[in-house]
Amino acid sequence: MNIKITGSGSYIPTEIVSNKDFIKHVFLNDDGTPFPLPNEVITEKFFDITGIEERRYVSDDLQTSDIATIAAQRAIENSKIDPETLDYIIFAHNFGNVKKGAIQTDLLPSLATRVKFDLRIKNPKCVCYDMLFGCPGWVEGVIQAQAFIKAGMAKKCLVIGAETLSRVVDLHDRDSMIYSDGAGATIIEATEEAGGILAHETATFTYDEAYYLFFGNSFNKAHDPDVRYIKMHGRKIYEFALSQVPKAMKECLDKSGIGIKEVKKILIHQANEKMDEAIIQRFYKLYQETPPEGIMPMSIHKLGNSSVATVPTLYDSLVKGKIENQSLHKGDVILFASVGAGMNVNAIVYRM
User: 7 forms bridges with which residues in the sheet?
Assistant: First the structure.
């Protein structure tokens, strides 16, 4: 028995927000004082560092569970399964449903429960739960689905990663330009086909790192102090990622028994282009190798950082031929990797 992704689907929001759309924003320092550089310079430097030209936001009528349902339906159709045969729905997100203009998240009932309801699944033994695991949530959901299947507790699982970060950003914080919205979903199944998940690795670092990402007040001191927004210590995250992600990737690959030269693609969390490139360079350096050209497909340039949605939407785009000059073939070995709030790091070695 092997455990494979038998279907995938995604939802890419329709609202395109370019870097030019931030020119009129009022960016502030964390103490509320005006940021000293003009916005044209801020956005130019931002692009040079992150590689982000555009990002996608959901339309005002949609919430995280809505776009997750669309992605899930597409994954179900792609896999050709009967949704009534699903044993688990695992939904990775971080902030729940946040309505446009609201100051409160909605997590009751769970978003996984809402997706099951929206899919009109009747089977009560299809168990639903949400996972809060930062940006690596979808990867961790796949690892958990694999564990359920290996334990004989499940045969089919739906794993979703979806987020609407546009609803929880402080528009006075330059970091708000990084974040975006999106949803990706996959069906994970037991199968007699060759390939599938070969190894995984997960770690949580909290001793010094727990609050590298956190909820904090707006940089605009006139804003309600009880309304909070996603905040991060960017430099610390960058240094942490460069230190820990390549190690986790190597441990995972070594565990799988696959050689570094067999890896065809690395699907890494789309957090920051320069950071991702540095992680890949360090990973290959651990094997005294140089990264092959085209090893790391990217979607961040046009889609931004949609947290848990970046890896599954990237995978869905890649397998469906939507990324220029990139492709996957049966038998190819790919490496999934992610890093995010927790601080959590994980990786999966997977053969198509």
Answer: 187
How far is Cα 211 from Cα 226, in angstroms, rounded to an integer? 19
Residue 90: name the closest of 9, 199, 185, 6 by CA. 185
Q: Report the candidate in 113, 79, 78 with the shortest Cα–Cα distance to residue 93.
A: 113
The arithmetic mean of pLDDT across residues 45-67, rounded, is 95
Taking alpha carbons only, the member of 271, 341, 352 closest to residue 305 is 271
The gap from C-alpha 124 to its chain's centroid, in whole angstroms, comes to: 29
- Which run of H or E residues covers position 118? helix 111-118
- Tokens 């282009």, residue located: 273
Of 150, 182, 178, nearest to 164 (Cα)?
182
Residue corresponding to tokens 């030209």: 53
Segments in 103-233 forming alpha helices (H): 111-118, 137-150
Rg (CA), the chain: 20
The confidence score (pLDDT) of residue 204 equals 98
Beta-bridge partner residues of 337: 268, 347
pLDDT of residue 101: 83
pLDDT at 103 over 80: no
The dihedral built from the CA positions of residue 247, 285, 4 and 10, taken in this order, carries a sign that is positive
Nearest Cα neighbor of 348 from 241, 244, 251, 240 is: 251
Report the alpha-carbon distance of residue 349 to residue 352 in Å, rounded: 10
Residues 6+ away with beta carbon under 8 Å from 36 = none
Q: In what order do the strands lie in the sheet with 333-340?
A: 196-204, 344-351, 333-340, 263-268
